[in-house]
Amino acid sequence: MENIDLINSFSEFKDNKHIDRVTLMAILEDVFRNALKKKFGEDDNFDIIINPDKGDLEIWRNRTVVADGEVEDENQEISLFEARKIEPDFEVGEDVSEEVKLISLGRRAILALRQNLISKIHEHDNTNIYKQFKDLEGELYSAEVHHIRHRAVILLDDEGNELVMPKEKQIPSDFFRKGDSVRGVIETVELKGNKPVIIFSRTAPVFLEKLFEQEIPEVFDGLINVKDVVRIPGEKAKVAVDSYDDRIDPVGACVGMKGSRIHGIVRELGNENIDVINYTTNTQLYIARALSPAKITSIKIDEENKRAQVMLKPEEVSKAIGRGGHNIRLAGQLTGYEIDVYREGSADEDVELSEFADEIEDWIIKEFSRIGLDTAKSILEKEVADLVKITDLEEETILHVIQILQDEFED
To answer: Any signal peptide, and if so, which residues (predicted)?
Structure first.
């Protein structure tokens, strides 16, 4: 293979990968010098001249002329007899520059050289992709569905870069077809070997935050700050917002007239229920707002253990807990407090769960109390399936408790 053929084949990679001239020349020289080291043992006496635009490549070996029979290093020295074959008037002590043709390296060396060139190009390309997407972590991004696998969706962006959206990074209601345009965020970028792995997510809280920035002008302009976002993807989310301008109602601006501004975000997230609340540094008020739509009666804060005991009217308890326990769980995540809810009520109308301590183990009573079910009726009013979802108790345990409580009321 002639020099020009090698350069021409390499130029194809240059055109496809958009490598700049300086980088291209640096990669070429590095690869050629490695080949020369393997062939001659060292490369410091070689000059490599590259013009990738024209496909020109020249390699010159520089040696010193020594008297015949006195050559000790064939790479650095050349005998007078051999030197005069190149130019008849050479004398001992002069420097000789001789062009090295790639063909002289041998066919196997040339094939290895070309493979190294390809490898270096891909390595350079992967490094650039890694740096590019590492800077985009946490940013909104769009890509097209290329391939749907059992545990992940493979997407391609406009430049042909591959992004991976694992099953757990998809909203449960998401359904994709090949060619669909999908919005999400670049969650993480890692190098595995020399290949960048770009993880695309629609479940990350920052995805919802970025949608607020895109869809709500005041958030984009910085007039409204998104202080915190917590989500159960596809089910429910809570977003705390704040504004330094007292003239702006941050919640009203985010929701819009009759929910007009937030409607597009809800639809993008598969009808995820979004509660927007006013952020405050007042812990009691913040917890009260976080438990919306429930209206609380009183709150007792334990700062040391980061716990809050919340008292509610009986009809508000189910609102505070929410379907599947989502509301109270998200309120706890948003505020950073473990929230225990208690219902107001007369002992004549109901029986405190603590009164069954001789029949029901203490840890079971605490688990029910944790989600606001601290009386017999509050548990009996719930379906067994719902109790399994909102507690960490087995169905068999729940049925046993229900039987004990029912026996009490029958008596």
So the answer is: none
CATH number of the domain within which 258 lies = 3.30.300.20
Residue 383 in any domain: the answer is no
What is the CATH classification number for the domain harbouring 32?
A: 3.30.1480
Question: pLDDT value at position 2?
Answer: 47
For 198-211, the pLDDT digits (tens) are 999 999 999 999 99
SS3 readout for the chain: CCHHHHHHHHHHHHHHHCCCHHHHHHHHHHHHHHHHHHHHCCCCCEEEEEECCCCEEEEEEEEEEECCCCCCCCCCEEEHHHHHHHCCCCCCCCEEEEECCHHHHCHHHHHHHHHHHHHHHHHHHHHHHHHHHHCCECCEEEEEEEEECCCEEEEECCCCCEEEEEHHHCCCCCCCCCCCEEEEEEEEEEEECCEEEEEEECCCHHHHHHHHHHHCHHHHCCCCEEEEEEEECCCEEEEEEECCCCCCCHHHHHHCHHHHHHHHHHHHCCCCEEEEEECCCCHHHHHHHHCCCCCEEEEEEECCCCEEEEEECHHHHHHHHCHHHHHHHHHHHHHCCEEEEEECCCCCCCCEHHHHCCCCCHHHHHHHHHCCCCEHHHHHCCCHHHHHHHCCCCHHHHHHHHHHHHHHHHC
Domains of the chain: total: 3
pTM of the model: 0.64
